[in-house]
Amino acid sequence: MKFKANFREKPCNFLMDDCQIEKVVELSYEDFCQLKITPLVDQPFIMENKGCMFHRNGVIHCLLALGQGSNDGVLVDAEGYDYARIAAYTPGMRDIVNAELGRAAEFIIREGAAHTEDGRWSVPFDALEKQLGLTVRVGSGLDDLLLDKLSQRAEVSSISLRAGRIDMTFHPDCCEHMKQGAVKTLADLPAGRRTALLENAVSAALSLYRGEDQYTMLHDSFGLTLQEIRECGYLSDQELTDICRVPQQVLEGGMTVRDVLALEGLPEGSALSHRSSVFQVPVEELKLLTDVGREDFAALLDARVADVRVDEETPELVLEGVEASELDRLHDELEAHKQAEEAMGPAEARVSCRKENPAFTPERRPGGMAIPPESCIHIGDISFSGDIVSSGDALDFQLKSGFDLEKMFEGRASASELRYWVNVYANYDLASGQVCDSLDIEVYLPRLFQTDGPVEPLSYVLDDAEKAALLRGMEAYCRQRTGQTLQNYSAQVMAEAVRPPDGPSMS
Predict the structure, then answer these.
(1) Helix, strand, coil shares of the chain as percentages rounded to 5?
(2) Which of 62, 404, 417, 418 has the fewest C-beta atoms lying within 10 Å of its C-beta?
């Protein structure tokens, strides 16, 4: 009997790791073959999806790469790198995914058909994860696959994907509560009767509730917008101003976000939202935008305030005239900015040194970054990337791997997050022909927002063993990059630095 197997030399065990697929990526036949044959080569799909790969509570959260025309798949955890640093080739993975999605579709159809009163049914993503262990998110790849499974079912008449849920409509004859005849709803009543019932319901709500509860009932329960509440005269402008805690200009509608930022008197915690987004962005945080940030988010700043929600006396300004993705992008940029500042710590303590210094305790510098108890250099895993840059009296080599960013930053952020805004350089002194005493660590906070002060560069002092390992890596990388030894390339750089400029000179 012949078949294929992936044998390991001297395996320590055959225990399986717990993993959870965060995103499915469909590769072309050629790209999937390249991944199988050369898994240690940088992959664009890995670079684009680093945020989907992480470890949490002993579970590896990973990407699944499927190939067109192939039934197999590759599970990938890049650990912040651009290649499949940890990976598992899984034969028949497409069938496994289809079987799990088929099971999820059957569960959704069975639950919806049994419990819907009017043929409509919504399934939150969180419920799928809790009950089936299936991680479905918009853009995860699993969302489209599951939607395709559900749309093929005869019971379903329509289906759509929303932020955080799947909305669907069943054919009436497939629903338990509708088989004995169509259920009467308000929509089946004559228009005049519906209007009278709504007026009665609103009158009852106005007599039962006061203040914010009254507005919330009209706005959230009956679905009336702020402008509709004003036009119908259910609440006066003064009442709306007091309840929503916004100036009269906001009630009148048409204000842009730029106008809102110039307003005085908005309560603390006031936020922007969008009907198609799950995120909110505090108005105060928009005031942190620099000129570059305001230009980048011009479309959002020009959006109009269409409605106002109220939650615990805090207004939420609902925007229109802009894509929800712009608000999502601003939220993500703000989160990245906060993570960067939190991981950096106070500016006065942004230097890491493992050598004894009587001014500091061995455990922590005052008010700042912890001193790593062990080396942050992984001597056996040093590699470089990019050009070798001449900067005055030194050559700068950018470290690609071999430096433990998480240890340096005390676990304030994951390695994959840190690599977005931290560059680490080892420097080679041209005069002495030796590695410089410390690494230079450049931190790039997002320049879209104002900061409390300039970001000071960090440094990491090297011991002799680390410098020797870096020197060996520099030598190999220089030969690979320039075709010369490090000594010869250094001599060439120094000679070019003192060479007189070409062209005629003035005597």
Answers:
(1) 40, 25, 40
(2) 404
In 262-328, DSSP assigns E strands to 271-274, 281-282, 304-311, 314-320
Dist. CA 444–CA 121, nearest whole Å: 46
Distances (CA, A) of 418 to 45, 80, 360, 475: 19, 9, 26, 27
User: Smallest Cα–Cα separation from 167: which of 225, 130, 124?
Assistant: 124
The two tokens of residue 135 are 């991680």
The residues facing 461 across adjacent strands are 438
pLDDT of residue 396: 94
Cβ-based neighbour number of residue 24 at 10 Å: 20
Whole-angstrom Cα distance, residue 139 to residue 503?
A: 59
Q: How confident is the model at residue 415 (pLDDT cuts 50, 70, 90)?
A: very low
CA pair distance 116, 119, nearest whole angstrom: 5
Q: In whole angstroms, what is the distance from residue 121 CA to residue 478 CA?
A: 62
Q: What angle do CA 449, 417, 280 make, to 5 degrees?
A: 50
Q: Which of 497, 472, 487 is nearest to 393 (CA)?
A: 497
CA distances 81 to 400, 405, 444, 489, Å, are 8, 13, 19, 29
CA–CA distance, 339 with 73 (Å, rounded to integer): 34
Report the percent of the chain where pLDDT is more than 70.
82
pTM of the model: 0.44
pLDDT digits (tens, 9 = 90+) for 329-374: 888 888 777 766 665 554 444 443 333 332 222 233 333 344 444 5
Q: How far is CA 322 from the centre of its chain?
A: 21
Q: Residues 448, 452, 457, 462: what is their CA dihedral angle, to the nearest 10 degrees?
A: -120
168 beta partners: 121, 159
**Which is higher by pLDDT, 94 or 404?**
94
Length reported for the chain = 507
